[in-house]
Amino acid sequence: MSKTACCAVLVLATSSIARADTTTDDASKSELVATTLSVGGTLAGAALLTGAIAGAESASPYHAAFPELLAGGIAGLALGPSIGRWYAHDHATKGLVLRSIGLGGVAAGFAMYQTGIVGAIFGGNPGMLAGGLVVGAASIGLVVAGTAIDIWGAHDSVRRFNRTLAVAPMITPHGGNGLAVVGTF
Question: What range does the domain containing 41 cover?
Answer without folding.
Answer: 30-184
